[in-house]
TrEMBL record:
Belongs to the glycosyl hydrolase 13 family. Residues 63-487 form the Glycosyl hydrolase family 13 catalytic domain. It comes from Microbulbifer hydrolyticus. This is Alpha-amylase. Transmembrane segments: none annotated.
Length: 586
C-alpha cells in the first residue's frame, strides 16, 4: 500500500508473519477470523462489557477539515488538474497536512489541551467536480477514489507519517476519518465503479433498516455493496491507476497476503477494511472516526475494529520507542440522529431504524458522536451536567462513551452559529460529562455562517487566523485554552460523576474512581471579582494544595475552605497535575 522506503521488503515477510497469526491468539481485542465467513461471524460481544476508558471519556478532540485549517504548502493547492472554478466555498482552499504539522510544532494544540486530532479524510478523492449542490470539488475528503494513498492536495504519505510522529511527540493522538459506505461521485474524471462493487440506485428513503443500508445515500454517492460476501476483482480504474504509478504488483501482493491470512472472501468491504487498517499498521494511527455508520451493516464495523486493533498492536510491538502507551485502538462513530437523552432516533444505547434497533456499541464502537448536545446546549448547565452524568454513570450509557459537540461541518442545527454565546458555550461543552469535540475555530469564534455559501459550505469557512491579532479573539482563545488544560490535567472533568454543591452561586464537583484512576475537581462559577472564599470540605482534604486552572494561582485548604484573589468570575479547582495524567495507560 505505502510507497515509503523499505516497504517492498516487508511485503514478502508479511505473508509469513501475518499468516502465522492464525496460529496464535490475537493481541488485545483482536481475534482473527481464520476461515472464510461473513462479517457477522467476526462479532465480538465482549467489547461493550469492558467499560469505557476514562481517557477517551474525558478526551478533548479537535476536528478539522484540513483544507480549511492552514496552508503549509501552497504548491499543492490544485492537484490532479483541479481548477479554481468552484461555487463559493465549494473548492479547495489550500489547507494541508503540512499546515497541521506547523501548528503542532508551534504548540497550538498543546496550548489548547487537545488530546487527539480528528481530520476529515485525507485519502485520495475524486479529481473532478460534482454539480449536485452547485459546482463542488472534494475539498472535504468524503468522496473516495483510492483508499491506499494520500490526496495530493493534502500532501504526501511522508507528510502524514511526519504529522503522526510530531503529534505523538506532543502527546497528541491521531484519529483518521474513514469511509466504507460509498465511493465518490461520478464525474468527467472519475468513472462509476463496477456493478459488483457499487449500486447507484435506489436512493435511501430512511423508512427502515434496509432503506438506510442497502441503498444509495444520495443520488451522487454510489453505495458499496457492503452486504455482499461474493468475491470480486479489483476495479479497473484502480488496477490501471496503480499500473501507471508502478505499484500494481505491490498492491496485489499485499491483498493476497491479507486474504490468505484472514480467510475473508474478496468481497468489497474486506478490500476497504484492508486498505483502511494498513494506515494503522504502517503509521500507528490511534483510532478511527467512522463516517455514515448507520448506512452499513453493523457487523462490518466489528470486523473493522478487529482488524484495526490487531494492526495497532503490531505497530506498537514494532515501534516500542514511538508508542505513547499500550492503550487499545479507539473507534468513535457518526450515527446520524444518535444522541444522549433519547435524542431523535435514540433509545438508550440503541438506534431505532423503525423496524429494527441496533446497539452500535456492541459492534466495535467505544464511543458515538452525541448529536443531541447541540440541542441540549440551550439548557442551563446543571440540567445538562446532572442529566449527562446520571446517563453515563448509572443509566443506559454506563460503560460506553459519547463525544459532545457544539457545531460541525454538516449539522445545520449547530449551537450558537451566530457566535453570540462563545464563552458560555465553551463552558457548557468543556465542562460537560463525556468527551469534547472542538470544531476547528470554535476556540476563536470562527464564523459559522456565510450568506454567499450554499448549504453546508456555510459552516466550512476557512480558519480565521488573522483574527488572533484582535484582543477579543485572544481573550476567547485563552478562555478555551484554560478549559482545555483543566480537562487534560484531570480525567474527572469528563469521566467523573457530577454532584451539585451549590445552586447560587453555581458550584459543582466531579469525582472519578475507576480503572486505577482517582481524581476529583471542583468548579465554582458566578464568583465575585477579587477575593473569593469557597468551602471545599468533602472534596479536598485539609492542607491540600489546590490550583485554580483558570488563573493559574494556587492555595491550600484551611479550615475546609480555599481563598483565591483573582479578577475572574470562575474557579477551576484541582490538585496540581501534569498533563501526562490523561495519557496514562488505562
Amino acid at each position: 500500500m505505502r510507497k515509503t522506503a523499505g516497504l517492498s521488503a516487508l511485503i514478502a515477510a508479511a505473508s509469513l508473519s501475518l499468516a502465522a497469526c492464525n496460529d496464535r491468539a490475537a493481541t488485545g481485542s483482536a481475534e482473527l477470523v481464520t476461515e472464510a465467513q461473513p462479517a457477522a461471524a467476526a462479532h465480538d460481544s465482549t467489547q461493550a462489557s469492558k467499560g469505557a476508558d476514562p481517557f477517551w471519556n474525558n478526551a478533548t478532540i479537535y476536528f478539522m477539515l484540513p483544507d480549511r485549517f492552514h496552508n503549509g504548502n501552497p504548491e499543492n493547492d490544485l492537484s490532479y488538474g483541479r481548477k479554481d472554478d468552484a461555487a463559493h466555498l465549494r473548492g479547495f482552499h489550500g489547507g494541508d497536512l503540512r499546515g497541521v504539522i506547523q501548528k503542532l510544532e508551534e504548540g497550538y494544540f498543546s496550548d489548547l489541551g487537545v488530546d487527539a486530532i480528528w481530520m476529515s479524510p485525507v485519502i485520495e478523492n475524486v479529481h473532478g467536480y460534482d454539480e449536485g449542490d452547485k459546482r463542488t470539488y472534494a475539498f472535504h475528503g468524503y468522496w473516495p477514489k483510492d483508499w491506499t494513498t494520500v490526496d495530493a492536495n493534502f500532501g504526501s504519505e511522508a507528510d502524514l507519517a511526519e504529522l503522526i510522529q510530531v503529534a505523538h511527540s506532543k502527546g497528541v493522538r491521531i484519529l483518521m476519518d474513514v469511509i466504507i459506505n460509498h465511493t465518490g461521485p461520478v464525474t468527467s474524471e472519475d468513472p462509476l465503479w463496477p456493478s459488483d462493487w457499487v449500486r447507484a440506485a435506489p436512493q435511501c428513503d430512511w423508512s427502515s433498516f434496509a432503506q438506510n443500508v442497502q441503498c444509495a445515500l444520495t443520488d451522487n454517492l454510489p453505495d458499496i455493496l457492503t452486504e455482499s460476501e461474493e468475491p470480486v476483482a479489483l476495479p479497473p480504474q484502480l488496477t490501471e491507476k496503480w499500473q501507471r504509478e508502478g505499484r500494481l504488483e505491490q498492491e496485489q501482493a499485499e491483498l493476497d497476503a491479507f486474504f490468505e491470512r484472514t480467510g475473508y472472501p474478496r468481497a468489497p468491504k474486506y478490500y476497504v477494511i484492508k486498505w483502511l487498517t494498513d494506515w494503522v499498521r504502517e503509521y500507528g494511527v490511534d483510532g478511527f472516526r467512522v463516517d455514515t455508520v448507520k448506512h452499513v451493516e453493523p457487523e462490518v464495523w466489528a470486523v473493522l475494529k478487529k482488524e484495526a486493533s490487531l494492526a495497532l498492536s503490531e505497530w506498537k510491538a514494532a515501534n516500542a520507542e514511538k508508542k505513547l502507551d499500550d492503550r487499545e485502538f479507539f473507534m468513535v462513530g457518526e450515527v446520524y440522529h444518535f444522541g444522549v437523552k433519547d435524542f431523535a432516533n435514540s433509545d438508550g444505547r440503541l438506534y431505532d431504524f423503525g423496524d429494527r434497533k441496533v446497539d452500535f456499541f456492541d459492534h466495535g464502537f467505544d464511543s458515538l458522536i452525541n448529536m443531541g448536545f447541540a440541542a441540549h446546549a440551550a439548557d442551563d448547565m446543571e440540567t445538562i451536567f446532572s442529566d449527562y452524568s446520571s446517563i453515563l454513570h448509572d443509566g443506559p450509557l454506563d460503560g460506553v462513551g459519547v463525544l459532545n459537540y457544539l457545531g460541525s461541518h454538516d449539522d445545520h442545527h449547530s449551537f450558537d452559529r451566530e457566535r453570540k454565546q462563545v464563552k458560555t458555550a465553551a463552558l457548557k461543552l468543556m465542562l460537560a460529562p463525556g468527551a469534547a469535540q472542538i470544531y476547528y475555530g470554535d476556540e476563536v469564534a470562527r464564523p459559522m455562517i456565510d450568506e454567499q455559501a450554499y448549504g453546508d459550505a456555510s459552516m466550512r469557512v476557512p480558519m480565521n487566523w488573522a483574527s488572533l491579532e484582535q484582543a477579543r479573539t485572544q481573550e476567547i482563545l485563552h478562555h478555551w485554552q484554560k478549559l482545555g488544560q483543566f480537562r487534560k490535567s484531570h480525567l474527572s472533568v469528563g469521566a467523573g460523576e457530577h454532584q451539585r454543591i451549590s445552586e447560587t452561586p453555581y458550584i459543582f464537583s466531579r469525582t472519578l474512581n475507576e480503572g486505577g484512576v482517582e481524581d476529583r475537581v471542583m468548579v465554582a462559577l458566578d464568583q465575585p471579582a477579587g477575593e473569593k472564599i469557597v468551602s471545599v470540605s468533602g472534596v479536598f482534604a485539609e492542607g491540600t494544595l489546590v490550583r485554580d486552572y483558570y488563573s493559574g494561582t494556587e492555595a491550600r485548604v484551611e479550615d475546609g475552605a480555599l481563598v483565591f484573589d483573582t479578577r475572574f468570575d470562575l474557579l477551576l479547582l484541582g490538585e496540581p497535575q501534569q498533563s501526562q495524567l490523561s495519557a496514562a495507560a488505562h
